[in-house]
Amino acid sequence: MPAKIHISANGEFCDKDGNVIQLRGVNLDPSVKIPAKPFLSTHAPIADGAFFEDADKVSFINHPLVLEDIEEHIIRLKSLGYNTIRLPFTWESLEHAGPGQYDFAYMDYIVEVLTRINGVQHGMYVYLDPHQDVWSRFSGGSGAPLWTLYCAGFQPANFLATDAAILHNYYIDPKTGREIGKDEEAYLKMVWPTNYFKLACQTMFTLFFGGKQYAPKCTINGENIQDYLQGKFNNAIMTLYARIKDKAPELFDNNCIIGLESVNEPNCGYIGETDLDVIPKERDLKLGRTPTAFQSFMLGEGIESTVDQYKRTFFGFSKGKPCTINPGGKKAWLSAQERDAIDAKYNWERNPEWKPDTCIWKLHGVWEIHESGGPVLLKSDYFSQADEAVFINNHFVEYYTGIYNKFRAFDKESFIIIQPPVMKPPPNLQNFPILDDKTICACHFYDGMTLMYKTWNKRIGIDTYGLVNKKYSNPAFAVVLGENSIRKCIRKQLSEMQKDAKSMLGKNVPVFFTEIGIPFDMDDKKAYTTNDYSSQTAALDALGFALEGSNLSYTLWCYCSINSHAWGDNWNNEDFSIWSPDDKPLYRETRSKTLTREPSPASTATSVSTSKSKSSSSSQPPSFIKPDDDLDLDSASCTLKTDLSGFRALDAIMRPFPMKIHGTFEFAEFNLSNKSYTLKLIGRTTPETTTVPTCIFLPRHHFAPNHLSIRSSSGRYAYNTNYQVLEWFHEPGHQYIEICAKSKSRCSTPVSDDSSDLSAECIIS
Ligand SMILES: CC(C)CCC[C@@H](C)[C@H]1CC[C@H]2[C@@H]3CC=C4C[C@@H](O[C@@H]5O[C@H](CO)[C@@H](O)[C@H](O)[C@H]5O)CC[C@]4(C)[C@H]3CC[C@]12C
């Protein structure tokens, strides 16, 4: 079983002896966003009312994985040196039948999934992620059950007509199963996040975080909708968590489950919007039909509106021709009759002031339909008492306090991972009782250019974090030119995100990139026919370079066992999976072409050269020692032999990294082009200094054991071919190691310019 994870005074993950460790892995798996029975991917057309009518009867069992296949997938992930899994699940999967009506069969399936993950040799760390995207499947994403929308008084069946949400499903022809629409009429690339600015999602987040303040009339069974929704959500999460603990306590005893994250990518809804009559100028994402908030309210009430329409151009998003939306007599709100039936079904008693068939923002006096006939915006600044800082430090903190208290009342040992809104710093919680020594801060990073254009642009990049956080007086200043600068800029962004998070939560709180990734369907899916993944490899290598520069822990978005070239991750045309069954044949083709050049992975006796800088305090030249076959890695990251076929951009995914540092991290860089790896650290001065190694995952995919050249400031090495781990027993103080595949001459950036390095021929056995 993997060893317990601790947190150092500097906010690093470490083992019980204070050696720095790293968490690396994937989000497994995005299929949790969609029901398995019936299989309702977002490319299932909405042909009849069943999509809504049967939403309480779905089952998510087999998502994330079919039980029988779990071992195979986990072993595959372990072959990358990965030790951690972020396990997303949705509120809908637990409580789709109605408030308080849990799907215990799904919960038990999750217990079995976890048990099987834990059963794979050396285990795996897992943390749970209550996932959502733009609130729910019924508002264009994933997460909450349908009844939450009914609870707010919405009629989701009319979201299409009123543009209250954009759903991929509506763009599928029921006859052909293919996508419909061209140009502006099509389901555009990465259009789904625009739902964050549409009526359904924006209202739901406003109610969830700020219902008491902004919608006091919306009470259900005597409770404001904010408390009602938060209460139900938190109860569902904790019911799952409690059931896991009850049915499989060994998962906690064996350090498999390490904690729980707060809700994925929380959003402020309307809170902070200063003028409901305009599209906020600070909004970075404008794509497709883009109504203002007021236009959304009108559309929701069935009033025709002409709204701006944006398209993606070379220079970002530009306004195209406006578009008139005619709801055709439909409203986004439940009629009196519909609501009565819903309320009876779920035993809801609403505040009598809460009229049916009415926009709740009209109900709260934000706008009205004037007697003379026209809609009038009365309070364009209704949500403007709060700004971003107020939202995060108040509304979000109130929510976080709720889940924190519930979680800690139940589990004092595991980590709680606080996730602020995407790409924003967390609230300032220093000296708050809800910030304890087992708190981790989650960050998500996506490169705006790569994400929105689905290509790797080597010439022009954008400081996405700087742009989103308004760090530039003019967005043009966020532009960076040239691949090297783009890579460095991404590295700087991640390190700034870490710095900003620590300045809010304290330096002792670890920062964990719980999501980071790239779309693989770049350049109109060219790679799926050419087998040329160079763009994806370059984009992913840039992320790897950025992450390892600060020794950041991360779980990539994502690993999807049912990925396909045709439909990607089966959700909203996304295709972020690092592995695809459809890529297996491609890998075989590549292998058969290159096999003659590859060394045999089975080789165990190898000759290598090592060298030692004069600057080292040791008088002994570095040498290889016999590795311990029963290498005790104290970690779940322990590779098991497997077939690597199906991995995409494998060169960039498979990376060396310090699994355990006997000291403090200073610098690391993997150079994919010349296959060299450099690690700098400050070795600890402890009685065991020379007996406790720094362990480096050194994948034979890049570093064939019989073709290694190693230079270091001090030490001895042992290479364990089974686990692909180099143990480096170094001295205290500033140390470096540089490992090159093949001959030393291929290392382009020597760490020492001392030409009189000693060298020795060594044997790895
Ligand atoms: C020059 C460019 C066009 C400038 C782009 C500026 C903005 C449009 C973008 C800057 C930052 C982007 C957002 C970053 C993160 C996001 C989160 C993401 O959700 C998660 O990602 C997975 C992959 O999409 C998804 O499957 C998971 O479930 C999610 O947890 C969705 C996109 C976005 C909101 C992204 C949108 C575009 C920017 C605002």
From TrEMBL:
A matching Pfam family: Glyco_hydro_5_C
One record GO biological process: polysaccharide catabolic process
Family: Belongs to the glycosyl hydrolase 5 (cellulase A) family.
MF-aspect GO terms: steryl-beta-glucosidase activity
Keywords, sorted A to Z: Glycosidase, Hydrolase
Domain (Glycoside hydrolase family) ranges: 74-135
Protein's recorded name: YIR007W-like protein
Domain Glycoside hydrolase family 5 C-terminal intervals: 655-738
InterPro entries according to UniProt: GH (IPR017853), GH5_C (IPR041036), Glyco_hydro_5 (IPR001547), Glyco_hydro_5_CS (IPR018087), Glyco_hydro_b (IPR013780), Glycosphingolipid_Hydrolases (IPR052066)
